[in-house]
Amino acid sequence: MDREAIHQQIQIEQDLLRHVVDALRAAVNWSAVDEGVTRKISTVRFLAETLQRHTQRLWAIHEYDGYMSFIIQTAPEMTHTVEGLKREHEKFRQRVQQLVLRLEKTSDTNERSVSDAIDLTRKVLDEYETLNADELKLILDTFLRDTGGEG
Fold first, then answer.
1. 3-143: CATH class
2. Is pLDDT above 90 for 35?
3. Which residue from 15, 52, 94, 132 lies 20 to 30 Å from 123 (Cα-Cα)?
4. 66: nearest Cα among 126, 145, 138
């Protein structure tokens, strides 16, 4: 895959993931009361599962067929950084799996359980934002660096 195709792929996928993250953040910030709590937890659960599926798919593409392979091939000195980011992806995948399991066990009739699940969801979203910033920095550092060769 050439540099432009990878850039285009990254942009589209990042935009899609941004929509999922924004939707999940909107759901956790939804101030539902009484019967609305059932819908809120159901929506948060659905969107957390969507986040889980999308990050698994997206990062599998990044790690095996996408920009990470490209970086390792074109900038081998970045291999250590790429491998570190792959480890962070795996940690986040585990964190989202824990979140999804927690949400599945959350009873919408237990106010404390709902509050704890919502707080955990916010923390996971914040962790995603940090990881995403690290990933974007790697992409920008690699794709925008001067590789020389121009007279």
1. mainly alpha
2. no
3. 15
4. 138
- In this predicted model, what pLDDT tens digit does every residue of 11-31 receive, in sequence order? 888 899 999 999 999 999 998
Name the residue with tokens 């491998």: 83
Contact 118, 28 (CB under 8 A): yes
By the 8 A CB rule, do 103 and 45 touch?
yes
* The token pair that represents 37 in the structure block: 């709590």
pTM for the model: 0.86
Domain boundaries, the chain: 3-143
Residue 119 contacts by C-beta under 8 Å, 6 or more apart in sequence? none
How far apart are alpha carbons 15 and 104 in whole angstroms? 27
CA neighbor of 2 nearest in space, from 17, 10, 16, 101? 10
